[in-house]
UniProtKB/TrEMBL annotation:
InterPro entries: cNMP-bd_dom, cNMP-bd_dom_sf, RmlC-like_jellyroll
Name listed for the protein in its UniProt record: CRP-like cAMP-binding protein
Gene3D superfamilies: Jelly Rolls
Organism: Acetobacteroides hydrogenigenes
Ranges of residues in domain Cyclic nucleotide-binding: 25-134
Length: 191
């Protein structure tokens, strides 16, 4: 399976994985290719998969009652994207997940994930850490939106993910930062 090595690398960072475990992991994940501007999840659908991005860039967003998009996540190579609430509760999602670039993903369903965690219990640690980080990141993002200036949020993004500015349209970055494209333009000129 193409690019499963990247996924195995991250599993091995946090868990001991045997050759037999690798075979079970390979059988649990399915490769998916998605073209730019195509969706893997639409609002109102139940999120059936966790996606590991081996190559590419995706965003998750919701559309408010006025038709304005609000970007919640931007994820690139070697990271995960999903609507965890919809995935775990198996209820309709409020979010869309769309490719910003042509992308290659590895997807795992809830049923296959649960079976994989039974078959390879050492992966419990990896996924516990992954979901803890997702929770902390969501809280940090909420706190930043409430208490940090737009300039501070921009500088943090520039420090943590400088490549995002070469791969993601500025309008999407502005939405993610919770500001208008015009405000982002002013901030960029001030730097």
């Amino acid at each position: 399976m193409r690019d499963v090595g990247k996924l195995l690398y991250y599993f091995k960072k946090w868990s001991y994985i045997t050759d037999e475990d690798e075979l079970l992991i390979l059988s649990a994940f399915e490769p998916v290719e998605i073209k730019r501007r195509k969706s893997v999840l639409e609002s109102g659908q139940t999120c059936k998969y966790l996606y590991f991005i081996t190559k590419g860039c995706l965003r998750s967003f919701y559309i408010d009652s006025k038709g304005v998009e609000h970007i919640y996540q931007i994820r690139m190579d070697n990271s995960w994207i999903s609507d965890l609430e919809s995935f775990f509760v198996q209820q309709p999602s409020k979010y869309h997940i769309e490719a910003i670039e042509d992308s290659q993903l590895l997807q795992i369903s809830k049923e296959k994930l649960e079976q994989l965690l039974v078959d390879v219990p050492r992966l419990e640690r990896y996924f516990r850490i992954l979901f803890q980080k997702a929770y902390v990141n969501a809280l940090s993002r909420l706190n930043a939106t409430m208490w940090e200036s737009a300039m501070d949020r921009y500088n943090e993004m520039l420090k943590e993910q400088p490549e995002i500015f070469q791969r993601v349209p500025l309008a999407y970055i502005a939405s993610y930062l919770g500001i208008t494209p015009e405000s982002l333009s002013r901030i960029r000129k001030q730097r």
